[in-house]
Automatic annotation (TrEMBL), chain A:
Pfam families: 2Fe-2S_thioredx
Taxonomic lineage from the root: Bacteria, Bacillati, Bacillota, Clostridia, Halanaerobiales
Record protein name field: Thioredoxin-like [2Fe-2S] ferredoxin
Domain of life per record: Bacteria
The organism of origin for this protein: Halanaerobium congolense
Gene3D superfamilies listed in its UniProt record: Glutaredoxin (3.40.30.10)
From TrEMBL, chain B:
Keywords annotated in UniProt: Hydrolase
Protein name: Stage II sporulation protein E
InterPro entries xref list: Bact_Sigma-Reg (IPR052016), PPM-type-like_dom_sf (IPR036457), PPM-type_phosphatase-like_dom (IPR001932)
Taxonomic source organism: Halanaerobium congolense
GO MF assignments: phosphatase activity
Record flagged with keyword Hydrolase: yes
A Pfam entry, by short name: SpoIIE
């Protein structure tokens, strides 16, 4: 069981705003980083669709993401 | 339990040709089904035009119940004459089956039909006569519950010429292949047709020497499908809708992420969102016990609509593992479809400046039901 959980929202707005790119960017992380993360998808996380795409990393919700921002969040908060 | 007549076909063009010189038209009416197969002279575009004209004229006039003599003379007077051969020509086979399962089959220059009954393939009893200078074969019989009937173009009976055989399979050879294939899986007509096409193609060494088409027909039980899409306007209806769909008879689909979340909450079941993108434009499907398919909402429904618009009756439903293809397949495999539609609108969708043609749920579902009615499915919609 990984220590870190990343949930990416795949609701319609998040999908349209690039959720698939987020998922892809996680799969392309360095092996050493990737294996510490349990990756899940989710339906609407926090009803903040106007700030799509949304993801939840270790219980905290992050909005208006792109692959670079997500990478920063992961590398700063990974346990 | 009602029965429905189901029919599937596949056409394969001659190797190297873009279009098939055979054409199939299927017309479904409340009380009868009309199936027409025509094979144009030669191959390619010219053959395609000949066969399309022939089958369109025949199916249109049959639909209006004109006598056979009229139909034949109209076709003969209309077909363009081939420059090379100096004749205008296409074969024609058609059948009409009514709700009493009484079947009438007429064949003009096309291979005799194959009737699969009691684990054996046999030839029908034909009456022969001449009309407008054409030799015509007619068969009338009652289609039984377990019967399967196959019509083929001559590309099938000639399978093997230029490939593995010197003289082609012939009628008996084809009968033998049909018998062998259908026996293995009597309930799945799609499987049989796909398998047979593969077999005939193999005899041709995967380089079909002529256009070929095979149509299969049989009766099966009616299938039901229930679809819930969208949260209801009133929150207290959440419980009502969840109960309705979980108790409904037949297969079940939920379309919409939020809708799936409501269902999971009300039915106290675990919802498992999927990770895999089979198609970049269609978000992954989810899983929940008791449901056959859970998809995303609007994008998937839009794709379903465009897939349905392209569908011609009798074709084998679309391939593909993404949510929209699976959704469309379930729709096409069912005979009576019931929609439970919630009309609540997700406020934040409105602020996103989504492309206008994405439309709103109720419009898309109305259009989907229109398409389903076009191919003679029973459709009911309940709004919440």
């Amino acid at each position: 069981m990984s220590e870190n959980t990343l949930k990416i929202c795949i609701g319609t707005p998040c999908h349209l705003m690039g959720a698939a790119d987020l998922l892809e960017s996680v799969e392309e992380l360095d092996q050493s980083l990737r294996e510490k993360i349990e990756l899940k998808t989710s339906h609407c996380i926090d009803n903040c669709c106007d700030q799509a795409p949304v993801a939840e990393f270790n219980g905290k919700v992050y909005q208006d993401l792109n692959p670079e921002k997500l990478y920063k969040i992961i590398s700063e908060n990974i346990r | 339990m009602g029965l429905v007549f189901e029919e599937f076909y596949r056409s394969v063009p001659k190797a190297g040709e873009e279009v098939c010189g055979d054409n199939v038209e299927i017309i479904k009416k409340e009380n009868k089904t009309i199936v027409v197969l025509s094979d144009g002279l030669g191959s390619g575009i010219k053959a395609n035009i000949l066969s399309t004209l022939t089958s369109k004229i025949a199916s249109g006039l049959l639909d209006k119940e004109l006598p056979l003599k009229e139909i034949l003379s109209t076709i003969l007077a209309t077909l363009p004459v081939c420059e090379v051969r100096g004749i205008a020509y296409a074969t024609l086979a058609f059948l009409i089956i009514d709700q009493d399962q009484q079947l009438r089959l007429i064949e003009i220059d096309s291979p005799s039909a194959f009737l699969f009954r009691n684990d054996k393939v046999k030839k029908l009893d034909y009456r022969e006569f001449e009309l407008e200078g054409k030799k015509i074969k007619e068969a009338n019989f009652k289609f039984q519950r377990q019967d399967q009937l196959f019509l083929v173009s001559d590309g099938v009976t000639h399978a093997g010429i230029g490939g593995l055989l010197n003289f082609g399979l012939g009628w008996d050879g084809v009968a033998c292949q049909i018998e062998r294939t259908v026996k293995k899986n009597q309930n799945d007509l799609k499987y049989s047709i796909n398998k047979l096409v593969k077999i005939f193609n193999t005899f041709y060494n995967d380089q079909a020497g002529d256009d070929f088409t095979i149509i299969g027909m049989k009766y099966r039980k009616k299938r039901k499908l229930n679809i819930w899409s969208g949260p209801p306007l009133k929150k207290e209806d959440d419980q009502v809708l969840a109960k309705k769909i979980s108790e409904a008879e037949g297969k079940k689909i939920i379309s919409g992420g939020t809708t799936a979340q409501i269902a999971a909450r009300e039915l106290n079941k675990e919802l498992e969102p999927g990770l895999k993108y089979y198609d970049k434009d269609i978000p992954p499907t989810s899983k929940m016990e008791g449901f056959d398919l859970l998809t995303e909402g609007l994008l998937t429904l839009n794709r379903v609509l465009s897939l349905l618009k392209k569908y011609k009756p009798g074709q084998i439903p679309v391939e593909g593992k993404d949510g929209a293809s699976r959704f469309t397949r379930l729709l096409l495999e069912s005979d009576s479809v019931k929609f439970f539609v919630g009309r609540a609108v997700n406020e934040s969708h409105q602020s996103l400046n989504l492309p206008i043609n994405l439309g709103i749920r109720s419009q898309i579902i109305s259009q989907i039901s229109e398409q389903l009615r076009r191919i003679k499915k029973e459709v009911k919609i309940e709004w919440f």
